[in-house]
Sequence to fold (553 residues):
Amino acid sequence: MLVTLSIRDIVLIDRLDLDFASGMSVLTGETGAGKSILLDSLSLALGARGDADLVRHGEPQGQVTAVFDVEPGHPVRGFLKDNDVDDDGDVILRRIQTADGRTRAFINDQPVSAGLMRQAGALLVEIHGQHDDRALVDPDSHRALIDVFGGLSSDVAAVAKAYQTFRSSEKAVSDHEARIEAARNEADYLRASVDELTQLKPEAGEEEQLAARRTDMMAVEKIAGDLSEAYETLNGSASPIPELASLLRRLERKTDQVPNLLGQPVQHLAAALDQLEESRSGLESALRETEFDPRELEAVEERLFALRAASRKYSLPVDELAALADRMATDLADLDAGEDKLAALISAAEQARVDYDQRAAKLSDKRRKAASRLEKAVEAELPDLKLERAKFIVEMTSAPEQRTRSGIDQLEFHVQTNPGTKPGPMMKVASGGELSRFLLALKVCLADKGSAPTLVFDEIDTGVGGAVAEAIGLRLARLAANVQVLTVTHAPQVAARAGGHFLIAKEATDPERVATRVKQIAEDHRSEEIARMLAGSVITEEARAAARKLLTV
Fold:
């Protein structure tokens, strides 16, 4: 429910903080005192269109903050979470209106769009009045209201699921027919391409492996000649190693004779021979490792060039050629076995259509019964609201061939205000006062069916009095047993039914400026305000007595 409304510099309001309780609260005051400003301010915080004229004259900006105490499971919390807005604790809507026409919106101190604020506000507050263009008078919402009233949410969900299945099966038929037609048009091309790619058998990663192998073999080919020549020098018939070894043996035999002269040269020569032998062995190993069949290089190049040619031909990376082959093969299979598969898909679509039609027909029947119950419930409220000759009609048309996610029904609330007149849409046929009372009767019947936690009624008692105003007050009080009700009223019979009473008045702040002030009237002073509402500017003792009587009823 709405617990706090804070307004800064909006029209005649300079600074105002109001705390609201549960149940029913009324706002009263003289005409022009600023009651509409309060509702305009609340509407601004709920996401209504901004207007630079709302800013108090001489101020750069105005601001409205509405704080709501919301149950953990309320839909607004899920909505905020889905939109990445923090939903812990109270839900705080804040709107800043600047004098140059710009607005800024915040929910729980996070910047949001006005559209998102408007959606959140609609989940928290419903505003009803003679000129209301939302809520119950919106024909687009009437089908949903009947579903809520009839407890048909599970049926609606089942129809929506059946509709999705039906539409998906229809799309599957359409897509398959398109594939078959395309395959027919490209059959020769497809077959030739599938044959080519099947023979080629491209594999993911193959191009990279072949390119690396080709690079290695070409590099080896360049050094193979030098390796072979070096090895032949050390190991062939012209190798110096045997002659050096023979010379080393002759010198070793003579070393004992002149050790000081030959010792070091013999050691160095022996080490050189060891190094030459190791070099010869290393060259031999390198030659073995670099050995490859030139025909392998040729085969690798042929394969690599074939893959790249196919890549250019089909305008795809080599790694995607295998998937292309699979898709083309599937298209050919669809062409070859398409009629059988198409028949199966058509059969499934037909079954899905039958299932939807059956569920939609059952839902339609339940809606008619719920509509009838709602008509009776609303009409039971009308006599006390001085609409005893009026009729409330749920105009329902069903078009089985026009399938939608919500079923096959279109519903709109119609009224007949007097016998002999033509029924028509509520918004067009009912006068302002009649519309307000129809809305109140509807809201009473729908009060426990998913209503927003706060309902605001703007002068719905205009043009009525006496017993009718009393009946309106009683119904508003009944609503307040389930939800918070805020009512702007001129009817003392309505005001007397409230638990909380706020008096709105204008007060001079300096010789040239006035401001709207709102104060909560204590219970023991409420009779004086209700007496004013009864008597006007001059309050008589009779009015005071009548006020006390209203408060004790």
